[in-house]
Amino acid sequence: MLPDFHKFKLEKLTDEHIKSLEESAKRARIAALTMVSAAKSGHPGGAFGAMEMFLTVYGAADLTPENCSGVKRDYVVVSHGHTSAGVYAALSEWGFFDREEAMAHFRQCGSVFQGHVEREVPGIDWGTGNLGQGLSAGVGFALAQKAVGHKGRVFVLMGDGGQTKGQIAEARRMAVKENLTGLTALVDFNGIQLSGRRDDIMPCNIKALWEADGWEAVEVNGGSFAELYDALKNAGNNGKPTVLLCKTVMGKDGLIMENTPEYHGKPVNPEDYAKIVEHLGGNPDTLTKALERRKNPPSFKGREINYPSAPNIDTGKPFDYAGKMDNRGAFGKALADVGKLNYKKDGKTPILVFDCDLAPSVMTGAFRNECPEYYIQSGIQEHSVATASGAASIAGVVSLWAEFGVFGIDEVYNQQRLNDINRAANKTVLTHVGLDVGEDGKTHQCIDYVGLMRNMFDWKLVVPVDPNQTDRVTRWLLKTPGNICLAVGRSKIDGMKYYSGDYKFEYGKADRLRTGKDGSIFALGYTAQIALKAAEILESEHNINISVYGVSCPLQPDMEALREAAKSGPVVTVEDHNANTGMGAIMFLEAVREGIEIKKAKTLGVTHYGMSGNSDAVRDEMGLSPAKIADSFMKVRG
Amino acid sequence: MLPDFHKFKLEKLTDEHIKSLEESAKRARIAALTMVSAAKSGHPGGAFGAMEMFLTVYGAADLTPENCSGVKRDYVVVSHGHTSAGVYAALSEWGFFDREEAMAHFRQCGSVFQGHVEREVPGIDWGTGNLGQGLSAGVGFALAQKAVGHKGRVFVLMGDGGQTKGQIAEARRMAVKENLTGLTALVDFNGIQLSGRRDDIMPCNIKALWEADGWEAVEVNGGSFAELYDALKNAGNNGKPTVLLCKTVMGKDGLIMENTPEYHGKPVNPEDYAKIVEHLGGNPDTLTKALERRKNPPSFKGREINYPSAPNIDTGKPFDYAGKMDNRGAFGKALADVGKLNYKKDGKTPILVFDCDLAPSVMTGAFRNECPEYYIQSGIQEHSVATASGAASIAGVVSLWAEFGVFGIDEVYNQQRLNDINRAANKTVLTHVGLDVGEDGKTHQCIDYVGLMRNMFDWKLVVPVDPNQTDRVTRWLLKTPGNICLAVGRSKIDGMKYYSGDYKFEYGKADRLRTGKDGSIFALGYTAQIALKAAEILESEHNINISVYGVSCPLQPDMEALREAAKSGPVVTVEDHNANTGMGAIMFLEAVREGIEIKKAKTLGVTHYGMSGNSDAVRDEMGLSPAKIADSFMKVRG
Fold this sequence. Notes:
Two copies of one chain form a homodimer. Chain A is α/β, with parallel strands linked by helices.
């Protein structure tokens, strides 16, 4: 029977507690070894080395099988997700699931006990395995706790090899600036990584770096329950986030595995398995039994990790714009309006807004003024913010990050991919997308966001046609579950009657803004306004009358609209996005899949890196001015 | 007349030199201000603040209009590329191009003087603007200098706001580990960033961090030519890479601009323009003249920055594999073979290989043993390595980085995008792509590399069908200019006769591995071997005879093959890649564009995040086993 020290309710661990924990560690090491041997793959060395850390953290945290899917509790992030066998073993000791099931089905197709920890397993708060992201996730959880007014703790366990990842330094600074004293990091300091000794691979003065970034760094014997418990209990008491540098031995208590880089990532042979299990007081038959059970499909299905439910916020009344207005400005005004309506109102879900030194450009300044405590200025640290914002979004708040396109998706694609895998509810607002970035030039032209988002399975993406639609989409996405991206350009454009008044945004619907009989243009976002001008040229100069569809949801093409359009003549797509990977590419692929025949098709878009100049000139050079679009239509028509 | 102190040939700058440089700084500030005012956009504050730094570095470096497109010289990287107006002004002072031309055509569509510095401008060694990448580029240049045996210097100028980017810390550690004492960083320490004061946005103990990573940090008055020159001359003398923390005043000598965050990124009004120009001893008519000239198209076209020419290496004789072999293993053997053939041979281009703690998995160990001095172990620091490897590739060496798929492209997509924009010749070898990653699970399944690469304009991508083709492609890519990615899975597969012996790889050609009359399967890389098994099932069970094409170049579909295949019946594509963004998506889009009618089409591939298990099981769950592929074909056939 394990001692109950959840929420640090014990002053100290007694000798008796420790004895019981040491027995638990033996069982857990046998379980971890059995998992890896049953799967014939995995990472036993790290699992053995950090077992005391896993057991102490999961024992002390306010995190139980009962409360682990709720919000007001402690969070634990295992950043070095490849130690999964050790994590599952420790969680099973603390009653999160049946140990036998984990031993039998580790790394088996169809089992939740994946090679790297995933949220489907109760007790796992963030799916990792791509190193460097865990501390940022911890920052996100801690910020959410603060916003919902819960004085919880957040623990982040990390390897020492991955300490070189730059994202960790960004997360450290966020933690200090936001004064997250409840956040405690634990570095599993075994000196060994995949291909050898840490000091040979890449020297890194870990302690000095944590201290330079403002953390309290405490050295701890990572193999001692007593030391770990005391250090964890006291962490943060001096008013700083604390890192425990836990001296561990890779493969500890694993005989041949001890201190051997070889067993970072491979199983021991059967003879060594038996020796190690006996050394730990267990029965080598454990593996035989696990393998027997492995022949059946897994019975434990894990938990549902669907998106958090819709937040409780009031989204207010939409604003209408008749004249010129930039979409980013309309977003900023709607955000501030919704922010103000809900700010610190009883029972309302907090709305956190992250900024990376771009408030004047991404228009989050008004929100900052209305909701100062919910505005998180995070500096130029996009990798960390992408993850922190994602993690916060599943911990009781609405979480939104506004950023230039190239920094909010190109720079952090893998972080947003992990947000997708973790089924977070991150709201990412990309401004300055497409060629509409002013004179900043090709490095700043985000002409690939549709293509990037299309690679993931659950993100929604909205590219509004005008400021009125932008306003409505902003209010909608704040209230809607799941990861959602809003992408807008920089220029002032017309507020359109179509999207004003009672217009209701419907995800996936293309809007027919003009009706004609001689073919169609489907245009993405604000380029629909350019396409309308092209249509006027076609009518006045060629007496050709076309339909123009405004497309705001390129990832979910409106096939009914396309089917209809295909009957009337050529279909031309227009977007200031890479023509190979954007809306047009998606629509025409779906047409092939659904057997819709389009006799004359053309994808207009970005076909090379753009120039630096005013947006009209840059678009014209790319063939995307009204006149050139009209010309292209005529050529396709033949 | 500016003093000649290139290559630090002067012991000290005399008062007379300094006077002449101060006059130069005034002219350059007027030029920078005029650029921003003529373009009505840009970043005057940083340009003014760092002018002495720009002038001193470009004056002292062994970098001239004559040698700037060669290799054996000094390199200068401006990481905060938004200070472009200041950089162009300083370069024009040193004779790289005509100042009037830069003033007239800054940020104008069609001009090389883009908003962020680009390599088309002589003197610019790396196109930047996405913060955090410059120091890594400097590391790459310095590594290349070392490999070609040139004792040059590399200077990297950076802003202080961007010091928070994690990639910088990674680059610092690479520089120290590789002992790059000729690398000198200069931080433009003005305390102001886009949205306010640095200490308010994100506190960061810059000096302590550089020192913790092992650099010598020297504080310098960034407004003093004498101090800058001395510090630059002495940097590195104590055996460490050195950073100069240059105290500057944003907007220095710009009256209203001085110390004002507002002018980080916007022009002054016309009255202030006149006042500032007069204050600097110039004539406010300068702007009028620039605007007059701006009405004409730019006359200066910049320089060609096409890929470096083919390296001088011997690629040896291909190996043949008849039995089971993993593609990653075949890559590793070919790489080591070519490495050994050329290692330190007279006149041969050095081949640098970068590793991020994965040699045993990505199979670069044999190369390391053969060519120890050309193997760069860089630790778990992928962002920095992606850029360093890219920069090295345009500085006189062949540069190759082998990495797991998710870390070599998903994690560093924006770095690889900048390699594309910079027209580098980075060879990136992605192992463990697709579902073929062993039991690591969804976070490690790189099922989006084709889609990611498709977003860029110049990368080539090869996904070999078998170990024999892998061998030949490895030899080919080492010798071929441009950014090229080789993507391989983890499992052992068959060496095929088709690709052995005299087979010659041809980029863009699909290989018909089996010929039938009842339809076709196009399959990406090793999945062609699975498709062949599906074809056998179709023949034996349904008496249906199909063609199977092995596709290794998904970015350049073989339209002739597709046209031919479309005539014979259904076309099914197979890949263990996201079916929405991979080979099939590309082929069918091109079919629509070229008007090829495909009556029955199906894209088989990855449709949700994969399981963790052995590759056969994971593929089967995804519908990609031979039997399920055959089933799908039958369904499409109807």
